[in-house]
Amino acid sequence: MNPGPDPSADRLKPWEAFRQAHLHDYPPSALAAWCALTLSGLLALAWALREVAAMPVDQMPAVVAALVLAGLASMFSVRLPRTSYTLSVSDVFILTALATLGPAVATLAVGVESAAATLRNSKRWSSRISSPAAAMAAMVVGGAAYVLLRDQMVATGVTPEIAVLGALCLAAPVPFLLTTLPLMSMLALKRGAAMQPLAWLADTSWMAAAYLGSALAAGMVHLNAVRFGSAVIGIAATAVLALVLLVRLTVNRQEADRLRQDQHISEARREAELSQQRFTAAFTHAAIGMVIVRADDSILQINQALCTLLRCPAESLLGRPFQSLLHAGDVALFRRHAEPLQARPEDAFSIELRLRREGNEDLWVAVHCSRYDDPAGHGPCLIYQLHDITSRYLAETRLQHIAYHDGLTDLANRHCFHERLAAAVEASRTDADRRFAVLFLDLDRFKVVNDSLGHHAGNQMLRDVADRLRGAVRPQDLVARLGGDEFAVLLESLHDPELGLRLAHRVLAALSQPLSVTGTEVVPGASVGITFSDLGYRTVDEVLRDADLVAGARPRGAFRRVDAREGVSEARARKRSATRHRRGTAQPELPAALRTGAGAPDRFRGTGALGAPAAGRGQSGGLHRPGRGERPHRRADRLGHRPVLRRPGGVAEALARV
What we know:
alpha+beta; Beta-Lactamase
């Protein structure tokens, strides 16, 4: 036979359901405190109902009025701004009922007021039950304290009116303590935290002040009601409720304005946070390098793009001086732009400079700098954006090199030479101590080599001559190819004219040494003219004109200096004479032997520097290629200043016309 259902289990089902719905987060200790508090409230309610039931019937309208005023007053509570607390004048009516009708009515009134308030403000029945229960239990104790104090004061000879007022003020803190302290203790047990009395007192001290003020107001209303009749209570209640309503409207309006302001502030803060997030995302994921630098030049933040550019991890760069990343030669330039920015935060600057990355490799970057106020409190900072322009810079450098250099010899071209010479002329005009000299060189027999051995051989000869010129002068001197077989050298910082003459002799000596061009040994010669800034030149054309005239007026392989005692007209006359001399002796076409390639020469020599014979030869020059089985004989004659080339088999007569 199956046992029937247990009646006790059925009785526990509503309690278990209530506990799971409203007390599920209460630990055993907090649950026990809640049950004790609720039980004490139920006992207080039972006692109050019994006492009220024993009161005379003619007092029942006053009892009902007191309960209605307490419940109505709870609806006119004022929420304190920026807190979760509310301020209610219902305590005035409750304490007035205590002084006028006794503790039992006051207990019922506080229960009605607390129940109405919790029903409006809380959705959990645990609070809707415990709060009225705690208030009624506390009012029972507070009412008993009031009666005891009043009777003791009357017994000591104090007038009843003063005894009522004093007893109310002295007993008012008792309900406050017995209402808030158990509830706070139960919440502490619920959270598993220890009760902190000092913190509790600091948080609820305003409530104690409200209770004391309510007791004083209730005592005054009671005294006036005793003296002038119960109509005073109605008038006071109406005035107090109207006052509370007006205050509530004002507070609600201010609270609405505050909420709108807080909303605007919240939106602005949210927008600022979004802006900061956008900036952080843009900073972190930017394709160009970005870095934030403090006022002391230490790196505060750096993005991944710059770390990749420098080939360094961010950890090794944070805190380092930003200027330590720059090329040593660009630090001074950077400081001239960055230091004024501290005094003028609205300014910004852009500059191109070099960075040093791992491996001592230089990078050209375009840097843009502006002021940045760090939101984290690091003060005014500078934010740099660095864009890698190394490829562009190399391309521009290459284009500039092409624009200012000869494509064949890689020497400076005419345009570059003119610019440097113009600067030297102007510097010499303003400062006589900044002297310079110009060498003008015209290669001898370049056309013969070019026509007989081909353009490739002529180009090779020009390149070799350029290398020799570069090696014969100082590093600071500028060697240029003006065009064709014309070269020029700018000698700057020339404090002694004799140094210029020695350099000119060294140039001629370098060009007197033989060189091999496509298997043929050639001794390049040149006619050189030199002029100095002491003659007071004013333009570049004047300098080049005199140097060219003097070089053209000399015999091939010779050297002459422009002398202040010799006018330009004489130099021009010398050049015309030398030109007529060359035209009278030279033939317009090459020897047939050279044109056909039969017996092509393997050695061609021009006259040496300053008209001297070639070093180590004994003759002034010649072209000879011996035939098989015969011992050649050579003889060099000078027709004017030109070498005569002889070779057996009738070729000598043809070569002699060169």
